[in-house]
Every structure is written in structure tokens, then in C-alpha cells.
């Protein structure tokens, strides 16, 4: 199924990716080529097949509920594009 | 010295014929000479590498020994290092320095290896040609007009051009084996869970595995001895006794059952690739191995399955890049939503954005069952076919890639043509199986051909042993690219 420009714009909004107007046509065209490829799957008979979510059939390991990480707040924040008094800054979201 | 194997270098260091500082300097000089043309490394810092080499020399002087003590190793730039930035080949992480070392890096540090530099790659490991890097494409040492394969193309080119004795890579759909094949070196994707993913920037978490690239299977074994092992910080790391892969290299070929999948020898394979692989199969037969014809009928579905599952997982994993806590942030924006959208538009390249959009689509309401769940079901079909095949054979042989290295730009405009290049490397990670690629000859253009060996879960020792036996009888793996003579 080929996606329309509007559908791709909606996906881009969900994925939080801006698409510049001049990029729109090639983005939609190449995306549709990929969808044509994955559409092959829809014809496969998979009745009664369990989905495989993981490469190995193993049970998730449990660990003791203990603090293992040391506090590196300042080191972590040194990577932030914008910060103040130990807080990460983002544009105002509440009027 | 530059063409020496890891064990030869190790011997030279132990015999005090050379120091780690001297050896590291030799490789740094080689990088300085060749990197401008090949673009295999994104980062390398001479003082840092020499300081690590000097520490290794001190450790050896104190009586410490380890096969990789003092040996410089290059790492794919998706593996977190505290000492050098980790860019993932992306503008998003252009200046990112990780606050911690990956498990793999800790293991190499403990062994006393020297961090030589960080290798170029397709952005966030999404690509098969190392052309999607923000830092420019990697060029193939055998012919600079060609790609090295990808995504671990920088690692493969570094080893091929003898700019590093060995390197690490990561493989999600072929990203170690395919560039190894196209660059004429050896590369192994271990069983899922064999090597810790702690400190690997995540692309598709149910598939990603780190592994080694080196000149020989014996060198891969030495690297695996350092890289593999349980790590509680990766919830998918498998608890099992540590193996000594080097000890197990001398396997017997007599009676070894070699599966040849019909689907891996069909149409679409270049004649030069076909011939080199057929010759290799004949060599295994001459050593007492037995050919077993097998069928893996769902092979043709592996690429579409992968291009649902990998983008789905990527769209989730890459949602962390929001311009708030680390990485790139757009200069101008109207509000928070606009900041996210512009940051991600500017920070990611076209292929990464395409995969995020595909992943968002296949996970979205109304399409999840038709694509994502369906892909997971077909993934199980593929895994079952391998399991059935491995009841009849001990390992599976075939070409790593249907073609040898292709021209830079040749497939850059058509994502699907690029994806189909990985048809033989995508199935193994879908089933969690180990696979390795070794050089097995050259085509008429003089380009290296890769032979792929796949095995059951945790059969790395068998794969490495079979490859090692082959390399004792052949010298394809020791050929040096003519554009980068020693």
C-alpha cells in the first residue's frame, strides 16, 4: 500500500521528525519503495505460528533490587545542550 | 610487522623485539598516511594511544602477560569509550563523549590492549556501504572508487589496509560479515547473547551483537576470548562458562557435515563469487567434510522481515535523541515539539530518518498486526528452518554477499537495492545464530570474495576451527590490497 504525502506527514509528526518541503517528494517516494518490499510479508501463511520477539528462547534474568550505579549527575549533565542549576532546559511548555 | 597476525605481534612483544609504544607508533603513522584517502577512522589521538601503550609496556615489565597486552585495537564508533568521542557516524552525536566504557572496552582495557582509534561507519549502523556516515564515506583499500561494505566499513578498511591489527564491529543484519567480505578480511558475528551489549549504542536490540574483525580466524579467536563472556548489565547476556576459542582451533574435518543451502547458490550471485565459494567448498570436501544439500525456503523473506523488525526497534531506540540530555539540538525552534522535530531532522541523515519512519509506521495503530507481528511470525519460520537444517549438518557454507564491492554511490539512491545486498547475512541474526566471513579468493576484477560459515547457537569454536583449517591451506587472508602496499 503506497502512502500519501499526508500519511507520511502524520508519521513524521508521530516520530518527531520535521520534513522540509523540498525533501518531501523523495522521502515519500523512497519510503514507498521500502513499503513495497515489506508488503511481501502479508501474503505469507503464518496461521498458528508464535511471534518470535527474541533471538534466543531464554527467561529474563532477575537481579537483586540494589543500587549499583554511582551518582554522576554533573558528568551526565555536562553533555546537555542547555542546562541551569542542575536542570535540563527545554522551551516553555505551560503558558 | 604491519602484516603480522595478533599472535605474531604478541610473540614479538613478549620477546621484547618491539615495545607497545613502538608498535602503536607504527600503526599511528600508517593511519596518518592512509586515513586521508580511506576515511576509515573518525577519531584517533596520538598522545592518548601512546599513553595507553606506555601503560601496557609497564604492565609487561611488571611481569604481566596476556595475548593482547600492548596490542593496538581499533573500535567501531558505536562502542562507547570514555577517552574518545562516540559519534555513531552521526551529526547527532558529533561531539558526544560517553561517561562510561562499554563492557567490550573494559575487557580490552583489562587485557591491556591499546585504544588505537574509533572507526567510521554507516550512521547508527544503518547501511551496507559505510556511505551514510556524517563524516563521509569509507573507501575500499582494494579500489578507492568502491565501497568497503557496511556498516562496520571503517573497521574492515582499517584491518584491510593494515592500519590496525584488528578491530571491533557490530552486526545487526550483516554489518561485520559483509564489510569483511567486501574488504578481504575476516569478521565474526557471535551468537546473540555471547558478547555484552552494555555500552553499544542500540540500533535493533533483538539483533545487535558486537564481534571482531581481523586478518585471520586465529586472530578472531584471540579477540573473541577477550570480548565474549557474561555481563549482568546486559539483560540478554547469556550465562555460560567462558570458552577458550584459541585452544579449540584444531578441529577435525573428517565427517564434518557441511550444509549447502540451495537458496544461497541461486540466481543473482556474481560468477566470480560463485566460483570462489565453489572452490572453497571443494577444499572442505577434500579434507573429508561431507556436503549436505539443504533448503532454507524462507530466505527470500529474511530481508522484508528484517526491514520491519530492525526499523521498529530502531524507531523506539532512537526516540532518546531529543536534543535535551545530550547530542545535537537545533539552533532555532518555535516550541518544544518543534525543537524535537527540527533537532531530529538536522541531527539524523536520510537513511536513519527513513528507518525511523518505517518503524513508526509498522508499529502504528492498525498496522501492527499486519507488519510487526507478522514479521515476528515469519522470523520464527526462518529460525525453525535453520534448526531443522542443523539436525542434518554441522555448519552451513555459502557466499557472504552476492557481489564483490560495488561503486561508491551506485546504490545510494535506491534503498531497496542496498538492502538486498544483505540477503545472505540477514538470516543468521534473525535466528540469533553465529556467522563468520573469511576471504576465499578474488573475482576477475581482483576484488576479494567472502565465504560465510554459519553454525548453531554458541558453535563459534567450530566455525573458527573450520575457518582456521582453511586458512592453514590458503593465503587469501594474507593478501594486502594493492592500493595500500606495506
What is the CATH topology of chain B? Answer: Amidase signature (AS) enzymes
Gyration radius of chain A, to the nearest Å? 22 Å
Biggest interface between chains: A-B, 51 and 73 residues
Distance between the termini of chain A: 41 Å
Tally of individual helices of chain A: 3
The CATH superfamily of chain B is identified as: Amidase signature (AS) domain
Q: Per DSSP, what share of the residues of chain A sits in E-state strands of 2 or more residues?
A: under 5%
Strand order within the widest beta sheet of chain B: 4-6-5-10-11-9-7-8
SSE pattern of chain A, N- to C-terminal:
HHHEE
Any idea what the radius of gyration of chain B is?
A: 21 Å
The count of domains of chain B is 1
Considering DSSP H and I runs of 4 or more, what fraction of the residues of chain B is helical? 25-40%
Shape of chain B: globular
What is the count of β-strands of chain A?
2
Main sheet specs of chain B: 8 strands, mixed
Secondary structure class of chain A reads mainly alpha
Structural class of chain B: alpha/beta
Average per-residue pLDDT of chain B, rounded, comes to: 97
- Strand order within the widest beta sheet of chain A: 1-2
What fraction strand of chain B?
Answer: 5-15%
Please report the total strand number of chain B as a whole number: 11
Amino acid at each position: 500500500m503506497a502512502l500519501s504525502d499526508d500519511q507520511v506527514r502524520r508519521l513524521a509528526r508521530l516520530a518527531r521528525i520535521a520534513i522540509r518541503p523540498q525533501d518531501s517528494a523523495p522521502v515519500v517516494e523512497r519510503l514507498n519503495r521500502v513499503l513495497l518490499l515489506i508488503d511481501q510479508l502479508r501474503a505469507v501463511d503464518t496461521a498458528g505460528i508464535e511471534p518470535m520477539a527474541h533471538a534466543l528462547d531464554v527467561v529474563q534474568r532477575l537481579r537483586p533490587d540494589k543500587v549499583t550505579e554511582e551518582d554522576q549527575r554533573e558528568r551526565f549533565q555536562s553533555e546537555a545542550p542547555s542546562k541551569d542549576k542542575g536542570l535540563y532546559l527545554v522551551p516553555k511548555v505551560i503558558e | 610487522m604491519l602484516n603480522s597476525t595478533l599472535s605474531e605481534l604478541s610473540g614479538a612483544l613478549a620477546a621484547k623485539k618491539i615495545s607497545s609504544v613502538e608498535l602503536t607508533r607504527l600503526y599511528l603513522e600508517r593511519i596518518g598516511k592512509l586515513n586521508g584517502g580511506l576515511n576509515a577512522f573518525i577519531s584517533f589521538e596520538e598522545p592518548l594511544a601512546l599513553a595507553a601503550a606506555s601503560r601496557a609496556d609497564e604492565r609487561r615489565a611488571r611481569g604481566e602477560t596476556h595475548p593482547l597486552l600492548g596490542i593496538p585495537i581499533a573500535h567501531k564508533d558505536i562502542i562507547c569509550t570514555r577517552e574518545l568521542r562516540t559519534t555513531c557516524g552521526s551529526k547527532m552525536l558529533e561531539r558526544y563523549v560517553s561517561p562510561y566504557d562499554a563492557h567490550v572496552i573494559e575487557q580490552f582495557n583489562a587485557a591491556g590492549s591499546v585504544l588505537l582509534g574509533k572507526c567510521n561507519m554507516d550512521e547508527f549502523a544503518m547501511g551496507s556501504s559505510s556511505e551514510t556516515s556524517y563524516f563521509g564515506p569509507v573507501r575500499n583499500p582494494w579500489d578507492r572508487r568502491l565501497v568497503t561494505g557496511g556498516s562496520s566499513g571503517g573497521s574492515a578498511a582499517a584491518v584491510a589496509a593494515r592500519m590496525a591489527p584488528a578491530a571491533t564491529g557490530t552486526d545487526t543484519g550483516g554489518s561485520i560479515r559483509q564489510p569483511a567480505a567486501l574488504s578481504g578480511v575476516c569478521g565474526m558475528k557471535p551468537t546473540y547473547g555471547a558478547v555484552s551489549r552494555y555500552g553499544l549504542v542500540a540500533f535493533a536490540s533483538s539483533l545487535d551483537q558486537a564481534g571482531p574483525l581481523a586478518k585471520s580466524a586465529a586472530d578472531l579467536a584471540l579477540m573473541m576470548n577477550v570480548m565474549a563472556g557474561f555481563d549482568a548489565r546486559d539483560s540478554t547476556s547469556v550465562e555460560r562458562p567462558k570458552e577458550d576459542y584459541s585452544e579449540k582451533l584444531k578441529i577435525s574435518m573428517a565427517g564434518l557435515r557441511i550444509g549447502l543451502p540451495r537458496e544461497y547458490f541461486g540466481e543473482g550471485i556474481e560468477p566470480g563469487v560463485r566460483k570462489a565459494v565453489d572452490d572453497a567448498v571443494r577444499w572442505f570436501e577434500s579434507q573429508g567434510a561431507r556436503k549436505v544439500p539443504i533448503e532454507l525456503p524462507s530466505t527470500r523473506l529474511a530481508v522484508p522481515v528484517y526491514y520491519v523488525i530492525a526499523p521498529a526497534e530502531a524507531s523506539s531506540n532512537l526516540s532518546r535523541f531529543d536534543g535535551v540530555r545530550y547530542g545535537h539540538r537545533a539552533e532555532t525552534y518555535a516550541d518544544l515539539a518543534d525543537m524535537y522535530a527540527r533537532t531530529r531532522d538536522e541531527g539524523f541523515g536520510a537513511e536513519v530518518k527513513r528507518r525511523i519512519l518505517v518503524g513508526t509506521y509498522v508499529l502504528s495503530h492498525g498496522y501492527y498486526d499486519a507488519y510487526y507481528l507478522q514479521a515476528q511470525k515469519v522470523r520464527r519460520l526462518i529460525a525453525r528452518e535453520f534448526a531443522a537444517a542443523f539436525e542434518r549438518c554441522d555448519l552451513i557454507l555459502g557466499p557472504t554477499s552476492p557481489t564483490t564491492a560495488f561503486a561508491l554511490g551506485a546504490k545510494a539512491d535506491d534503498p531497496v537495492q542496498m538492502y538486498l545486498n544483505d540477503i545472505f547475512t540477514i538470516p543468521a541474526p534473525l535466528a540469533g545464530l553465529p556467522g563468520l566471513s573469511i576471504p576465499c579468493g578474488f573475482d576477475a576484477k581482483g576484488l576479494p570474495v567472502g565465504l560465510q560459515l554459519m553454525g548453531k547457537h554458541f558453535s563459534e569454536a567450530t566455525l573458527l576451527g573450520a575457518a582456521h583449517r582453511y586458512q592453514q591451506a590458503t593465503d587469501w587472508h594474507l593478501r594486502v590490497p594493492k592500493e595500500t602496499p606495506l
